[in-house]
Amino acid sequence: MTQGDAWQGTVLAAQANYYQVHLDQGTDLLCTRRTRLKKIGTRVLVGDRVVVVEPDWQGQRGAIAEVLARRSELDRPPIANADQVLLVFALASPPLDPIQLSRFLVTAEVSGLRVLLCLNKADLVSEVDQQHWRSHLNDWGYSPVLVSVQAQTGLRELGTALRDNTSVLAGPSGVGKSSLINILIPDRELRVGALSEYLGRGRHTTRHVELFELPEGGLLADTPGFNQPALTMTARKLAACFPEIRARQREARCQFTDCIHQEEPGCVVRGDWERYPHYQSFLEEVLVWQAKMAQVTDPDAALKTKFRALGATQDEPRLEAKRYRRPSRRTQRQALEAIYQDVGELDSDAEE
Ligand SMILES: Nc1nc2c(ncn2[C@@H]2O[C@H](COP(=O)(O)OP(=O)(O)OP(=O)(O)O)[C@@H](O)[C@H]2O)c(=O)[nH]1
Ligand SMILES: [Mg+2]
Ligand SMILES: [Zn+2]
């Protein structure tokens, strides 16, 4: 191979400025990042499509010279080019709590990614109960895939929905996320920590995001389960996170463009649809958060103290799409927008 030849690939794992890149032609290389990328401040994220140069096939090494344009970018977990959120809930054990499911759905929707809902432990409930949930969720605007990891049902349908996509796993504790990963990625145990071991740091280092290739195609990222994710978004965004509201707004418009669908006259959203009470209760939460944000007057101080301002805890991972890069100067309005968008950016930048 002559110098200047370049290969494209996908970053599957990242740790300590080393990147495991799976080249399209099949080889995995351990790569560093070209100094030029460092200088221009280009981060390399798991999921990034990259150009690798000067591969050393014997030593399985290479260098990342370029990061291709991203289709999407999640902040928590830090993943580029994800297509969908695989939200896992259990039909029973723990019991399926509609408001908790709603909350997770909203958190998944706000990422801007497609939401694929998977209901596990179908073996624990009757056919009637399964039908009950299917039809409710259809009313909510979702077509859930019902599976049982234990009875190994529904897994083919799930595999099809995951194929050719990069999916990010989310869901509360105990629903079977780890069980699902183990069955979807059979040789995962062998692959887990390959990069850490290569770097000689053992397996017990800080948890990092890793993408796994699915046997039927597609990539799956595993993220830790999280409970009661915080609804840190504007009222307008909250409304956009309900498929039912989106559908109503496609058909008609509220009289006021800034309608938040409470008591306003001429509202086309308010009504006796099933999840309207969920929307109302989330809205209250969001309005409290917005009021806190409105108290923030100095944009620079706001950026520095945004964690405290939001009352967010750092150990509560959240799915979050980052749509803005941080410019050096912003108007106050832009700064507030940015806070809505990229809470958590500060600490993820710190690793560089
Ligand atoms: N009956 C039944 N039990 C299941 C099924 N899938 C998983 N379980 C059980 O549910 C429990 C929790 O599964 P995990 O895979 O650890 O759940 P998790 O989502 O990874 O939980 P956290 O790691 O706490 O977030 C385990 O005891 C599993 O054996 C299923 O399809 N049916
Ligand atoms: Mg688990
Ligand atoms: Zn309205």
How would you describe this structure to a colleague?
- The chain is an alpha/beta fold.
- It contains 14 helices and 14 strands.
- The chain has three domains: 6-69, Nucleic acid-binding proteins (OB fold (Dihydrolipoamide Acetyltransferase, E2P)); 79-221, P-loop containing nucleotide triphosphate hydrolases (Rossmann fold); 235-347, no CATH class.
- It is globular.
- The two termini are 32 Å apart.
- Zinc ion binds at residues 254, 259, 261, 264, 267-269.
- Zinc ion binds next to loops.
CATH topology of the largest domain: Rossmann fold
Q: How many strand units?
A: 14
Radius of gyration using CA atoms only: 22 Å
Q: What fraction of residues sit in β-strands?
A: 15-25%
Mean pLDDT: 83
| Ligand set | guanosine-5'-triphosphate, magnesium ion, zinc ion
Compute the number of helices. 14
Ends: how far apart? 32 Å
Percent of residues in helices comes to 25-40%
The topology string of helices and strands comes to EEEHEEEEEHEHEHEHHHEEHHHHHEHH
Shape: globular
What would CATH call the homologous superfamily of the largest domain? P-loop containing nucleotide triphosphate hydrolases
User: Structural class of the secondary structure composition?
Assistant: alpha/beta
What order do the strands of the largest sheet run in, or round the barrel if closed? 10-9-8-11-13-12
